[in-house]
Amino acid sequence: MNVSVSSADYGQMALTASLAKKQQEAQGQAALQLIESAAVAVPQPAPTESTMDSSDERVGSNINIMV
Questions:
Q1: How far apart are the C-alpha atoms of 41 and 45, rounded to whole Å?
Q2: pTM of the entire structure?
């Protein structure tokens, strides 16, 4: 088996590797931008009269069930 690689082949491999690296970096940047845009804070609803009257906002959130 004769495996000989010319300098042109090395150049082609180097170019291909460089382009692949640039593509991966671009995809990484796009992924980071997507993650950052999804991390926007969600506004909390304004308190209503029923929640303002309650002395404990957690009332009813604890349910004890005995079987």
A1: 13
A2: 0.47
